[in-house]
Design goal:
The chain contains four helices and no strands. With 78 residues, it is mostly helical. The longest helix is centred in the C-terminal third of the chain and has 23 residues.
């Protein structure tokens, strides 16, 4: 009988995955491996189930928010 894979993140994986996606440009496959998933597709599936976004969508949303804040700060300093 095959081992059942978890349908949610284990331990500190959600926080670590989110931080890596927000703060680095590591490929999603590498983020998946760092947080303990051998299969990046499985990681992405579980990430989406838990956050409502794919890892790539999450990263884009975080980076676009960061860019908007920096743009506003630059305008304020002019």
């Amino acid at each position: 009988m095959a081992a059942r894979l978890p349908s949610t993140f284990r331990g500190s994986a959600p926080e670590q995955a989110g931080r890596l996606l927000r703060e680095t440009d590591l490929p999603v496959s590498q983020v998946a491996a760092i947080v303990g998933y051998q299969n990046p597709s499985r990681f992405a599936e579980i990430f989406r189930r838990n956050t409502g976004r794919s890892p790539a969508e999450y990263r884009r949303a975080c980076w676009s928010s960061f860019t908007e804040v920096n743009d506003m700060e630059r305008k304020d300093s002019l």
